[in-house]
Amino acid sequence: MTRPVSTRAGAHWLNSFRRALALAAVCLTMAFCGQSFAQNSAFDHAKTGFPLLGAHIGVDCTSCHVNGRFKGTPQRCEGCHNGVIAIGKPVSHPPSNSRCENCHKSATSSFSDVQVNHTGITSGCAACHNGTIALGKPANHMATTAPCESCHKSTVTFAGAGFNHTGISSGCATCHNGTTAVGKPANHLATTAPCESCHSSFTSFAGALFTHPANVAGKCSTCHNGTTASGKPTSGHIPTTAQCDICHKGTTAFSGWVMNHSGAGITAACATCHGGQFPDVLSKPSNHLQTTAPCENCHTNTTSFLSATFTHPANVAGTCSTCHNGTTATGKNSYPNHIPTTAQCDTCHKSMTSFAGAVMNHTGITSNCASCHNGVFANGKPAGHKSTTADCSQCHNTRGW
């Protein structure tokens, strides 16, 4: 009769049996795991969820399955490629916590087939782009210590960088020299002043406010030529070849100018400007004497119209009263003791420079001599003259008493 086995003894026996089977499996595995997968190709490694490809095919099994371990074997690259189990990132490798396969597309064959994936990288570009690990700043790159990502927003190309001028207030020409960055164009006004003296915007060169240096006198037209800066308007400006600053004294506005006739290079007749065609230039007033003579014939002062000396033209005879009417020029009514007459001035006044020396011309006068010869306007009857009420002409003629 067979002796029954206790429950406790049976469990012990079952556990011993299982350990024996596991030991046998290990021994069996160790028997061929000293070889590569290529030498044991009968085993389908893909069923483990980690197919062996490329260089992994020739790797000794125990390189990954240490001490016959199968469960928990690392499947991510860095689990083995840590510099202990297998070769890891070299010292010169760009700093990154990205997974190896994100950049190494043929990781199972070669590490040299690299395509960097910049996804998630927002700073620290210079850690790689230092000219050794990856392309760095070229020799003609603008001088700056700013991080690459301050200006370069693309991880595909260096082109299209948008420079951030924050904190820059001077030294523009260091970069804006026509090579590193856009510099002064060919039609820029000639100046050695720093860019920031006039340009205050970092987004556009337009809207610059030029600050005229103290030594700008005499050179205005170098810039104020209508192209580089506003020049003389095509109409409405006084014709002159003089420099702007002869008349324009302000460097902030063209208004408020004072005409300088002595240095303005004026060779044309006064009426060229003083003819009513320029609103800001005085012309002949409405009560000016009627004449077609040039202004400068009478007006010799360039600061005032006063003290003009009229030069009588040769054909003035017989028309004196046109001007000598007491309004335009001195007339008879300016002299209360003038002989009453309707004759033209030049009948008696022969001088064009003075009213003195007039010689009375009695031609045409036949009676009423006493109208003038009354002792006020002209000599009258002397004290010893005979008493009479007859008109002078009855006894006296105009040629002698």
How would you summarize the topology of this molecule?
Layout (H helix, E strand, L loop, with lengths): L6 H27 L43 H4 L139 H4 L178
What is the N-to-C succession of helices and strands? HHH
Number of helices: 3
Q: Report the β-strand fraction as a percent range.
A: under 5%
User: Level of helix content?
Assistant: under 10%
Head-to-tail CA distance between termini? 208 Å
Mean pLDDT: 78
Kindly state the number of beta strands.
0
Shape: rod-shaped
Quick one: biggest sheet? none
Classify the secondary structure makeup into a structural class. Answer: little secondary structure
Which assembly state applies to the chains in this document?
single chain
**Poorly predicted ranges (pLDDT <50, ≥5 residues)?**
1-5, 22-33
Report Rg.
58 Å
